[in-house]
């Protein structure tokens, strides 16, 4: 390992410890880590603070303002009342219904859709919960459900990457059955449901501070009375922002600007004032997300990712059990995809290594390709990537509370993914 790699690792570990002990305000540790990365010469200022000009962060910040405006409409008021009614009928039933609804909705957007999890967590953050359905019980379960379509019909991105990594490794097994690949996704989603049902017990039974009065009782519902034309304009701004995010792959960078223009519109018509806009686009979750992107980019630029992959491959050797090989590379891919913030890039580094090893053992490499590609979107036990950072920030979980849910989730999902891949695509 080089000196920059060692320094980068030490700074990253220090950042995680600061997040864990909760001694600094939420969002501050990644900024401190970025400063240290520059001071110690691990990376330059542009890379360390590049997260603040990252297209996804700009989109997220703008969308936070749009959601704040949407909170003042009758639509969200009605949605709040539905959630409250569900809670009054039974907290656990409401909990199940919420994350199942999210999983059904995610079937439209596909695995790992940034637009979808921003939309879902943004709306959930506006809802006031009762003691029967505390926010601590809901945010994590519903948030990570965004990553698991219950009807996996939109899997073209991951399917295409599976084909690409097989080709890159020189495999002759290029034709992969799309239906079988969808079944692997379905088993992964079912494993998440199984954990979410158990995980209800480990999630904290609390509402966060901004939904409570000083006496610990739920705050009174705030009723907004926007003129109809302002309300309808807010809906239009919200829909424009969502459509823009969905069409990003088709219209390019302009899609990231549409939420910003939508936020400007709700400012102009005075649904939100400038202070409200500023507070939302500069929220701690934005600082957290932007900061960790810089840390991730700095880690990747040191060459640590490639070094770890080669080291693990050489340690496993050519006599390793195929199941163990796939599972280890799933862990490696998911971990470093989270740390580096580059899911597809990390997959392209590690998947060919595992595929080549399988081929050298005379095994069908399709299971390895499918499992390792999907594992890139199933890290999440470290709050230093978009989805887990948003879940931890909006849910205001302490790191220990966050880990009680995410670490078992991490291993359950990867074991289920490896088993499903080996069963569906026999070695």
Give your account of this protein's structure:
This protein has 427 residues and is an all-alpha fold. The chain folds into three domains: 3-49; 55-150 and 223-285, no CATH class; 156-177 and 295-424, no CATH class. The protein has helices spanning 3-21, 28-39, 45-48, 55-70, 74-89, 91-109, 114-124, 135-145, 156-168, 178-199, 228-246, 248-251, 254-268, 274-281, 284-301, 304-316, 322-340, 343-360, 366-375, 386-395, 399-424. Helix 4 runs parallel beside helix 13. It is globular and about 70 Å long. The chain starts with a helix and ends with a helix. The model is unreliable at 210-220 (pLDDT under 50).
Give a quick account of the main beta sheet: strands, pairing sense, barrel closure: none
Low-confidence residue ranges = 210-220
Helix content: over 70%
Structural class: mainly alpha
Mean pLDDT: 80
Number of domains: 3
Shape: globular
Backbone CA Rg = 22 Å
Distance between the termini: 35 Å
Which range does the strand content fall in?
A: under 5%
| Total helical segments | 21
User: How many beta-strand segments?
Assistant: 0
Order of helices and strands: HHHHHHHHHHHHHHHHHHHHH
Task: Offer a few descriptive terms.
mainly alpha; 427 residues; 71% helix; 3 domains
């Amino acid at each position: 390992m080089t000196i920059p790699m060692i320094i980068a690792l030490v700074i990253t570990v220090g950042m995680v410890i600061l997040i864990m002990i909760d001694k600094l305000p939420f969002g501050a540790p990644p900024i401190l880590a970025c400063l240290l990365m520059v001071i110690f010469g691990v990376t330059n200022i542009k890379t360390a603070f590049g997260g603040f000009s990252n297209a996804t962060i700009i989109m997220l910040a703008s969308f936070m303002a749009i959601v704040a405006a949407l909170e003042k409409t009758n639509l969200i008021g009605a949605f709040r009342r539905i959630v409250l009614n569900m809670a009054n009928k039974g907290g656990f039933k409401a909990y199940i219904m919420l994350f199942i609804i999210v999983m059904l909705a995610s079937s439209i957007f596909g695995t790992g859709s940034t637009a979808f999890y921003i939309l879902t967590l943004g709306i959930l953050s506006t809802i006031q919960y009762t003691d029967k359905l505390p926010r601590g019980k809901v945010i994590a379960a519903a948030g990570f459900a965004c990553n698991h379509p219950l009807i996996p019909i939109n899997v073209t991105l991951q399917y295409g990457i599976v084909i690409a990594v097989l080709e890159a490794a020189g495999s002759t097994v290029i034709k992969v059955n799309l239906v079988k690949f969808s079944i692997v996704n379905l088993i992964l989603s079912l494993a998440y449901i199984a954990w979410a049902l158990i995980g209800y017990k480990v999630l904290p039974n609390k509402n966060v501070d901004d939904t409570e009065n000083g006496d610990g009782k739920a705050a009174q519902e705030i009723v907004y009375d926007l003129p109809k034309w302002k309300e309808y304009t807010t809906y239009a701004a919200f829909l424009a922002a969502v459509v823009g995010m969905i069409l990003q792959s088709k219209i390019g960078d302009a899609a990231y600007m549409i939420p910003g223009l939508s936020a400007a519109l709700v400012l102009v018509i005075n649904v939100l004032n400038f202070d409200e806009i500023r507070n939302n686009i500069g929220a701690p979750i934005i600082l957290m997300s932007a900061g960790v992107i810089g840390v991730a980019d700095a880690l990747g630029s040191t060459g640590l990712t490639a070094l770890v992959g080669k080291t693990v491959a050489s340690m496993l050797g050519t006599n390793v059990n195929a199941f163990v090989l796939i599972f280890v590379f799933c862990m490696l891919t998911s971990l470093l995809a989270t740390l580096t913030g580059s899911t597809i890039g990390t997959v392209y580094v590690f998947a060919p290594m595992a595929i080549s090893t399988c081929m050298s053992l005379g095994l069908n490499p399709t299971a390895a390709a499918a499992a390792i590609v999907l594992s890139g979107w199933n890290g999440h036990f470290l709050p230093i990537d978009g989805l887990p950072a948003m879940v931890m920030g909006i849910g205001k979980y302490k790191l220990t509370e966050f880990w009680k849910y995410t670490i078992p989730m991490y291993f359950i999902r990867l074991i289920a993914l490896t088993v499903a891949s080996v069963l569906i695509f026999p070695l």
